[in-house]
Amino acid sequence: MSAVGGLAWRALHALLRALLCLQRALLAAPRAWLRRRAAASCALLGPAARALAFPGAARGGRRPGRRRTGIRARGRADGRALQKLPLHVGLVVTEEEPSYADMASLVVWCMAVGISYVSVYDHNGIFKRNNSRLMDEILKQEQELLGLDCSKYTVEFASQDKADQVLNCQSTLKVLSPEDGKADIVKAAQNFCQLVAHQQRTYTDLDVNVLGNLLSSTSGFPDPDLVLKFGPVDSTLGFLPWHIRLTEIISLPSHQNISYEDFFSALHRYAACEQRWGK
């Protein structure tokens, strides 16, 4: 009986193994069929995609919005389509590794839609220390993105030295660092105290407008209407603390590889928001 039982057990075990193999084969069949269908589709559509040069195909998979065509035509139309357009936009990077190319694209996109004042800021002061590199990239992107129309979108590189500024420009750019924030407020307060000490002012003269006029970092610039903050940090990290008390702040994940669509979506959100001015 034990021999018969052993044979029966081995037969049952072999049957179960056969059933498991059959189950695996049945489950694998649809996947193999789908893989064959996908391979066939790629073989048919691949040449067509390369012939059409879909955005990103030649740029290592960059997002479609990074394609440098169509911005010249879209920029002005998009700016006019918005219910309201910010006069001054602050571009605040809280990431540790700023991208000159992506920041230059953002600046030129601001120019293209008709924004008059742009401030660039990172909390480490990298852009300001390498100001010439950023400016060269902006000029390059201006030619690349705006093409033959670049003469209509001249950018002014504002500096503390008025002689360095270019007049009659459509857009004005300032590159800022933390020293232009709290440190500038302290300097303005010291200047006001000196004026009081020399009897050119009295302490009762101090108000919002007087202090604003004493701030040198944004001389000739209106307060930002909109700040686009890039990065995971939930803070503007010292960007013009005196000037952004009524500013709309919109956070975006990163400025690196940002698309024009992401940029314009943020402008659209600003245009749709209701600003109560502290009320």
From TrEMBL:
One of its GO terms (biological process) is positive regulation of blood vessel endothelial cell proliferation involved in sprouting angiogenesis. Belongs to the UPP synthase family. With DHDDS, forms the dehydrodolichyl diphosphate synthase (DDS) complex, an essential component of the dolichol monophosphate (Dol-P) biosynthetic machinery. Both subunits contribute to enzymatic activity, i.e. condensation of multiple copies of isopentenyl pyrophosphate (IPP) to farnesyl pyrophosphate (FPP) to produce dehydrodolichyl diphosphate (Dedol-PP), a precursor of dolichol phosphate which is utilized as a sugar carrier in protein glycosylation in the endoplasmic reticulum (ER). Synthesizes long-chain polyprenols, mostly of C95 and C100 chain length. It is an enzyme of class 2 (transferase). The gene is NUS1. It is found in: Endoplasmic reticulum membrane. PANTHER family: DEHYDRODOLICHYL DIPHOSPHATE SYNTHASE COMPLEX SUBUNIT NUS1 (PTHR21528). Its main location: endoplasmic reticulum. It comes from Coturnix japonica (Japanese quail). One of its GO terms (cellular component) is endoplasmic reticulum membrane. This is Dehydrodolichyl diphosphate synthase complex subunit NUS1.
